[in-house]
Amino acid sequence: MTSIGRHLTIDMYGCNYDHLNNLEFIKTAMLAAIKETNLTLLDLVGHQTEPQGLTVIALLGQSHMSIHTFPEQSYAAIDIFTYGDYTRPDKALTVFKKILRPEKTRMTNIMRGLQKDMKPRIRVSIAPLRRMRNTSARVWRFLRNK
Questions:
Q1: Range of lowest pLDDT (23-32, 50-59, 78-87, 100-109)
Q2: pLDDT digits over 60-76, tens only?
Q3: Residues 6+ apart with CB under 8 A from 18
Q4: CA geometry: angle at 71 spanning 99 and 95, to 5°?
Q5: Cα(100)–Cα(95) distance, rounded to whole angstroms?
């Protein structure tokens, strides 16, 4: 089964304080990333928090994109969830790197909607449980026969 969509989580460390605390600057960066990734913008909402930091969320025709900034830590957390074969959410990383200029970046790519992810990753062997049950039965038989 193929995945339904891709979910990128991007952590950016060492970003400029003034950029991370400027709502219009972050909105412009997000609009540039949306254009570059071939996504359709439906709505863009931003909120400045006190004493610093902000959140910008874009509702897209192919899902959503969000950025949360923590200027006091020079940190930005970006989430991009998209579906559709023609979208390129990984291109948003390039745009955000160019605009925010972080010292360090970490990206995680999660494939969403895979049913094989629902299977347990650890195999459990039933043999030790059977041996224990059989041993228990033998002990009971032995005790009854005494």
A1: 78-87
A2: 998 999 999 999 999 99
A3: 71
A4: 15
A5: 8
Strand ranges, E, within the chain: 5-13, 41-48, 54-60, 63-70, 75-83, 104-112
Report the C-alpha gap between 36 and 92 in whole angstroms.
7
What is the residue type of 93? L
How many Cβ atoms from other residues are within 10 Å of residue 17's Cβ? 13
Q: Are 13 and 104 in contact (CB under 8 A)?
A: yes
Query: Which residues lie closer than 8 Å to 145 by C-beta, 6 or more apart?
Result: none
Q: What's the predicted TM-score (pTM) here? A: 0.74
Nearest to 83 by CA among 62, 112, 57, 110: 62
